[in-house]
UniProtKB/TrEMBL annotation:
Domain Glycosyl transferase family 3 N-terminal: 9-59
Protein family membership: Belongs to the anthranilate phosphoribosyltransferase family. In the C-terminal section; belongs to the anthranilate phosphoribosyltransferase family.
Required cofactor names: Mg(2+)
Keywords per UniProt: Amino-acid biosynthesis, Aromatic amino acid biosynthesis, Glycosyltransferase, Magnesium, Metal-binding, Transferase, Tryptophan biosynthesis
Name of the protein: Anthranilate phosphoribosyltransferase
GO cellular component: cytosol
Cofactor note: Binds 2 magnesium ions per monomer.
Residues at which 5-phospho-alpha-D-ribose 1-diphosphate binds: 74, 77-78, 82, 84-87, 102-110, 114
Gene3D superfamilies associated with the record: Nucleoside phosphorylase/phosphoribosyltransferase catalytic domain, Transferase, Pyrimidine Nucleoside Phosphorylase, Chain C
Binding locations of Mg(2+) 2: 219-220
Domain Glycosyl transferase family, first and last residues per copy: 68-314
Gene this chain is encoded by: trpD
Organism expressing this protein natively: Sandaracinobacteroides saxicola
Pathway per the UniProt entry: Amino-acid biosynthesis; L-tryptophan biosynthesis; L-tryptophan from chorismate: step 2/5
Length: 324
């Protein structure tokens, strides 16, 4: 199939047909590369993002999840190379009693993605994919490894790597959770893109979502300074660490490394180490707990998340998960 010229925004019909062809292998790699690069250079529209998400969802391997399950996931691409905040947040929030269907992948723009770090901690990614529905029910957590649930995207990996910049498929990841969760804390690497992403989610029928972006830019709430959070259909709101009763730390204080390095940092966090990493995790876990209606305000949400760490509940959860 010949892909449409992506120099200008596509209609919903054009975008639907183009992404179906790309994911079904009916367009050659050179054409796909040019299409994705051209779209990325001019910035994707809400209509195009929604079309790509619909195409991916139609081809994914779904799993069942409790009705109150949430996801905490970012688009990546902020180039901050920070420690794995959303992965730690998933453990903390699940330890607070909120089921978390964590969607994630290996690193694309950092040294270690959530999958890499969990694997370094001892999680068998293949086994985790096979037992995801069971662990969500029994433990309240699952890791939905993108490569296991989105086979249509696997063949595109070489093309995406050849482009050497983020494409629309970086943006679609959080909205393509295989568990179909309705509540999501989504980090977007570009604060100026929050409104476009919110419009895409509205087109997809998402309502119970919180989009966040640090000013640096960062695809999570920043522990270093102001961030923006936005719910579809509502006005954007500004937040700082002080809003939640937390101190600021420079981003260099949560700089990550390879999978082994990040796994050691996560283990130390679960062992109770007080650190800038802990504060970054508490801030973002608080947002997830507010989204899940498990806390009344930022301060109480931080207190709840801190108790999950200090009581050993989050560490116990990881131990049980690794042994499942």
């Amino acid at each position: 199939m010949t892909l449409p010229d992506a120099t200008y925004p596509l209609s919903a019909e054009e975008a639907d047909a183009a992404f179906a062809a790309i994911l079904d292998g009916r367009a050659d790699d050179a054409a796909v590369r040019d299409f994705l690069l051209t779209m990325s250079l001019r910035d994707e529209t809400a209509v195009e993002i929604a079309a790509a998400v619909r195409a991916i969802r139609a081809r994914m391997r779904p799993v069942s999840a409790p009705a109150n399950a949430i996801d905490v996931c970012g688009t990546g691409g902020d180039m901050a190379n920070s420690l794995n905040v959303s992965t730690a947040v998933a453990l903390v929030v699940a330890a607070c009693g909120v089921p978390v269907a964590k969607h994630g992948n290996r690193a694309a723009s950092s040294q270690a993605g959530g999958a890499d770090t969990l694997e370094a901690l001892g999680l068998n990614l293949t086994r985790a994919a096979e037992t995801a529905e069971a662990t969500l029910v029994d433990l309240g957590i699952a890791f939905l490894f993108a490569q296991s649930h989105h086979p249509a995207l696997v063949r595109l990996a070489p093309v995406r790597r050849s482009i050497q910049r983020r494409t629309i498929f970086n943006l679609t990841g959080p909205a393509c959770n295989p568990a179909g969760v309705s509540r999501q804390l989504i980090g977007v690497a570009r604060p100026d893109f929050l409104a476009v992403y919110a419009d895409a989610l509205t087109l997809l029928g998402h309502t119970d979502v919180m989009l966040v972006a640090g000013d640096e830019p960062l695809d999570e709430l920043s522990i270093a300074g102001p961030s923006t959070f936005l719910r579809p259909g509502q006005a954007a709101t500004r937040i700082t660490p002080e809003t939640a009763g937390l101190p600021r730390h420079p981003l260099t204080a949560i700089r990550g490394g390879d999978a082994a390095y990040n796994a050691r940092a996560l283990s130390a966090l679960l062992d109770g180490l007080r650190s800038p990493y802990r504060d970054a995790v508490l801030l973002n876990a608080a947002a997830a707990l507010l989204l899940a209606h498990a806390a009344a305000n930022w301060h109480s949400a931080v207190h709840t998340a801190a108790h999950a760490l200090d009581s050993g509940a989050a560490k116990t959860l990881l131990t049980r998960w690794l042994a499942y």
